[in-house]
Amino acid sequence: MTSWNFDPDTFGHGMDADELAGTPATPQMEELDLNGDGVTDTVHVYQDTDGNGTYDTVTTAVDFDGDGQVDFTAVGVDTDGDGIVDYNEAAMGIDWNGDGQVDAVLYGQDADGDMVMETSHLYTADEWADFAVPEVPETPAPDEGDGFSAGYEQFDANDTNMDQVVGSPVSDEQYWEYQGESGPCAIYAQVMAYEGMTGQDIDPQEMINVAYENGWYSGSGTTMDDMDKILNYLGADTEKGYGGDLQDLEDCLSDGGRAVVAIDGNEVWYGNTDTYAPNDPNHAVEVIGIDYSGEEPMVIINDSGTVDGHAIMVPASQFMDAWEDSNFYYVEAYA
Amino acid sequence: MISIQEFLKNVNTGHVVRSSVPMGLGKSLPMLDIADDRLLVTLFFYRSILRPEDKTLLMPPEIIASFEYPGARLVTFETLALSRRFTGVDFRKPAGLFRHEAIRHLDREAYMAEKERYYEKLNALIAYLGGGEAFTQQDEDELARLFTMLAEPGLYPYYRAACPQFCERFLRK
Fold first, then answer.
1. Could you say which of A89, A130, A277 has the minimum Cβ distance to residue B50?
2. Residues of A with CB below 8 A from B16's CB?
3. Which CATH class is domain A4-132?
4. Does A179 touch chain B (CB under 8 A)?
5. Residue A255 near residue A334, CB atoms below 8 Å
6. Domain A157-334 has CATH 3.90.70.10
7. Residues 6+ apart with CB under 8 A from A145
8. pLDDT tens-digit profile of B103-130?
9. Is residue A79 over pLDDT 80?
10. Counted domains in chain B
11. I need a surface site. Which of A185, A268, B70, B132 has the fewest CB within 10 A?
12. Which pLDDT score is estimated for A8?
């Protein structure tokens, strides 16, 4: 793909970031004659897709052989608004038998903007064309529902022997907040953990913005790798890794730290209800205590993903089942 | 050779999911593909928003990924919202509801049992593709029955887009 020559420093062929910055939010087309034969063979279209007044997307169409048909298309996106392309994708039509018809499409993605296609896929022409957008059902939109209650009991200091309780569930419960029906569980878990350690009041929405600007939140969620970035941003020290166990959580809480763990959300969200979901996502929750007073230890968590998720008590065996699905991945945080 | 269940566990705890798949996205049913004599397992990752009374929202998939079997090396990774193939999709609108009609009679345990049967049939198909045991017409029909029943109708187009050859054979609607 020799024509794949977007320069991340100049954001496209002929216009640099300074020229583009602050230009009106209307598509701008640039026509080029790269082979110098006097005929336009390449077109760039610059777009401001988020309407913030700065171009963020450049689409390129190239006619290699001058037959008037586009042979190669590519899209470069500046996803974080810093003026540098950090996502690219390209598609090139292939005519195996020279009959002028596209037989296959070579499609590739460069997910980090380093100009190297990490992945590519060869589609037949039928496969490429064969995506019909399905009709969508009439349902309340995400974040317009009433949320889901897992039906757990909340921790109550009056119902237990506090000498058998590790952590600070009574005080940490007050920092719980409901995240809504999608997205930023890991950010809420980190904010709750930091507030519990410091008593400071942190606005989760502000941290979502920070995470988005730094690439730690995609608008869809946070990866496990980025599960401690907001804690670090706020000034907490963290350690993270696989292979945790209840003793690790207890040690962390006993040392004044807070723990954020990645669990199979559905195994906790189902709670004691009959509801279930088809897939098993990872989900971040804050562990705020462990109650050893009963026959089975109860892990006390602040779960921003359910409407009654404050200081809910999950039997240790169920918690460990849910945690196992991330290979016991967790973050320890200390203020 | 590891089972598909172990393989999926390795994917879920592996580098790709840890570094590139946002938490909150769950995996689709796995599908098999063969490319350049390599056996691939293709999945897509999507969000389900839990709601009671069979009104759980199934959002359009966000990522399609293929992994080489059995080592779980990433082979392809496609972000649908940024892919021109899917420009007509409104990723903010649900693609379907769960539970769908074909599985409405299944409680949680029965659903998991059917999913396990699907995995076991995939294991049998993998063994057959590896030159081992036979995979009979009866096995093929049962795999198709399970896949067609368990896959959510609202997501059928995405299953087909992710792994067309597999769906041509095993998605029978």
1. A277
2. none
3. mainly beta
4. no
5. yes
6. yes
7. A181, B49, B51, B57
8. 999 998 999 999 999 999 999 999 999 8
9. no
10. 1
11. B132
12. 34
